[in-house]
Automatic annotation (TrEMBL):
GO biological process: digestion; hemolymph coagulation; proteolysis
Organism: Drosophila rubida
Protein name: Peptidase S1 domain-containing protein
Reaction catalyzed: Preferential cleavage: Arg-|-Xaa, Lys-|-Xaa; Selective cleavage of 103-Arg-|-Ser-104 and 124-Ile-|-Ile-125 bonds in Limulus clotting factor B to form activated factor B. Cleavage of -Pro-Arg-|-Xaa- bonds in synthetic substrates
One Pfam short name: Trypsin
Gene Ontology molecular function: any one: serine-type endopeptidase activity
Sorted UniProt keywords: Digestion, Disulfide bond, Hemolymph clotting, Hydrolase, Protease, Serine protease, Signal, Sushi, Zymogen
Family assignment from sequence similarity: Belongs to the peptidase S1 family.
Domain (Peptidase S1): residue spans on this chain: 66-291
Coiled coil stretches, renumbered: none
Annotated InterPro entries: Peptidase_S1, Peptidase_S1_PA, Peptidase_S1_PA_chymotrypsin, Peptidase_S1A, Trypsin_dom, TRYPSIN_HIS, TRYPSIN_SER
Amino acid sequence: MDSGLGRGIILLLCAAAAAGRADYYYSNATDYAYLSDEQPLFPPLSYTSNPNITAIEQLDELPTRIVNGKRIDCQRAPYQVALHYNDEFMCGGSILSRQWVLTAAHCVADSKGKGSFKVRVGSMQQRRGGQLHRVRFVIAHGRYSSKSMRNDLALLRLATPLRFGRCVQPIRLPSSRRRRLPHCYLVSGWGLSSASAKNVQRYLRGTIVCTVGNNRCRRMYQHGGVRIYRQMLCAYRPGHDSCSGDSGGPLAVGGRLYGVVSFGIGCANRKYPGVYVNVRRSKRWIRNIMRKYS
C-alpha cells in the first residue's frame, strides 16, 4: 500500500475463495477499510460518537427531505445517488465515474462487510426508477473519526458500470486552479425537512446554501463543543439546510463537487451551519483510490 496515504486503520478485506465464500482479513498497516456487500446480517450504526453532534443517520429514524428545498428534476443533479443498505434507503452519494460513487464514511463504516449495499441513479425517486447497481466493495477513509467527523469519506466500487444518459452523469472534482470556494451551492437529497421530521420523502429535493468561512464556522461551533477542521466546509442559508438522510450527498455548483454532506447540530439551525467534507482537500485520496482499484 502507498505509505504516503497514511496508516493506522483496520483493513477489512473481502476475498472470494474458490467456493465463493467471503473471508475477511485484518491488518493495521494501511489507510483503507474494505467492506464487502456479502452476507447481510445487521444494519450499520451510521452516526457520530460525539455527544454534541446530531445523530446523522439511523435506520430506525427514516429520512425525509432537504429543509425548505424544492423538488428538482434528475437533470438538475444527474450525479445524485441514493444509497441503500439491505434494501433500505439510508444516504446520498455522487457519481464520479461509471464504476465509482463517493459518499460519507459514516454511512458505511460500521457495516463491517455484513450487509448488502446498492445504489440507485437516474431517478428522482430513491425507491424506484432509474438504474439499480450492486456495490462490489467499499473503501472508507482510514483516518475517518466518528467522534471528530474528520475525513468523513468513502468510495463505492460498483459491480457493474453505470449507463450514462441525461439523468446519469459524473460530476467533476474541484479545479486546482481555483483557490477560493464558490459563494453558493446546490445541496440535494432525500433527507429530513426538519430535525424532528419522520416521514419518508419519495422525490429528490434541492436547495441553495452559501459558504460560511471556516473561522466564523469554528467560532459558532465552539459554543456546541464541536471542533471544525481544515478538511471541513461550512454552508448555510437562513431556513435552508441539508439534514439527516442527505448524508453523503453532494454540495455542488458549476458541474463540480465541492462538498459531501457530513453533519450538523440540528437542521437549518441559525447558530450552526451545515458541515460538509471539503472535497478539494481530499482530491489526492479520492484519485489515488480510484486509480489503484479500478
